[in-house]
Amino acid sequence: GGVLIGTSATTSYTVTGLNASTAYSFTVKAKDASNKLSDESNTLIVTTSAQPNFSITYSEGGGSSPTVSNTDLLQTNATLTASSGNFLRESEGDAASLTNGSSSLSSSERAGIESGSSLTYTFSGSTTGYSISKIDIYSTWGDDGRLKPNVTVSYSLISNPGVFIPIATATFNPTIQYAPVGIWTKSSFSLTEYDGIEALKFDFPNQQNGWVGYNEIDVTGIPSPIQISTNTNVSSLTLTSTTSIMVQNDVELTIDENTTIKDIQVKPNGKLSITGNNTISTTDGITLQSDNTG
To answer: Which of 14, 73, 92, 271 is exposed most, by the fewest CB atoms within 10 A?
Structure first.
């Protein structure tokens, strides 16, 4: 027999505290007004999603500007929705300098960010949120006195907006101490399985000597796929040529009509059923992970 994990006075129950990438079996019993219990229901088997993973790498340079993006998500699909603190310490730039695509090391292109400041960017253009794969944070100063980055990055999900979950804190001690044109550092977050992201928050605690110069934040990502977690017919979905679909384990996606989509990915125990004489047009194809049926 199983272990009782909870009861509910309604027809729904939320299970918490599950481990990532783990299969769980659930059964339900119903109780009537006379406290008579039913037999156990059929068993529902689900597998939780993988735990998001990350790594941080650091680099530095001096005398010439680093290469930054002028087409990242913060510039094309995000808005600064919350900020607090001071971004003008010994600098002519402000928070807007962080997302203008300029790699200049001049004081007019950097934000002098004081300890305790924070910035929140909310994404737009995708109802499923974004899958973020990379975050690059650049600091710059004329010497090593206000160069050391110290930034905590957090994210919130489309499914739980406004509730931020920390990823990690980037902090780095550069070895270059002075360059005539200025010196810079780059803190690079590489992320996997960070999907459905609604917003990113950057907190700047305990900055070196009170404040540090930052000149750019670049965020790389794509719209998150629609997650198919129950047996679904494609006709119930709103699809475009930019939509991605992820078919989860132990569920089936049925396609019985002409469909145009960016791509379809099917997890190992997922199932893709294509019926009838229909055309499926994709730009990135259909990916069947190992042990699929299709």
So the answer is: 14
For position 294, what pLDDT does the model report?
A: 55
Whole-model pTM?
Answer: 0.75
Amino acid type, 57: T
Q: What distance in Å separates the CA atoms of residue 115 and residue 133, rounded to the nearest whole number?
A: 27
Q: Are 109 and 184 in contact (CB under 8 A)?
A: no
Query: 35 in the Ramachandran plot: left (φ > 0), alpha (ψ -120 to 50) or beta?
Result: left
**HEC assignment per residue over the chain:** CCCCCCCCCCCCCCCCCCCCCCEEEECCCCECCCCCECCCCCCEEEECCCCCEEEEEEEEEECCCCCCCCCCHHHHCEEEEEEECCCECCCCCCHHHHHCCCCCCCHHHCEEEECCEEEEEEECCCCCCEEEEEEEEEEEEEEHHHCCCEEEEEEEECCEEEEEEEEEEEECCCCCCEEEEEEEEEEEEEEECCCCEEEEEEEECCCHHHEEEEEEEEEEEEECCEEECCCEEHHHCCCCCCCEEEECCCCEEEECCCEEECEEEECCCCEEEECCCCCEEECCCEEECCCCEC
**pLDDT band at 179, cuts 50/70/90?**
confident
Give me the amino acid identity at 260: T
Q: Which amino acid is at 92?
A: E
CA atoms within 13 A on the CB side of 281: 7
- The answer to whether 46 and 23 have CB atoms below 8 angstroms apart is yes
At 190, the amino acid letter reads: S
| Of 158, 149, 71, 154, residue with least CA distance to 119 | 154
Phi, then psi, of 42 in degrees rounded to 5: -60, 155
Q: Are 153 and 23 in contact (CB under 8 A)?
A: no
Which residues, 6 or more positions from 21, have their beta carbon under 8 angstroms from its beta carbon?
47, 48, 49, 50, 51
Structure tokens at 134: 């990379």
CA-to-CA distance for 274 and 294, rounded, in angstroms? Answer: 8
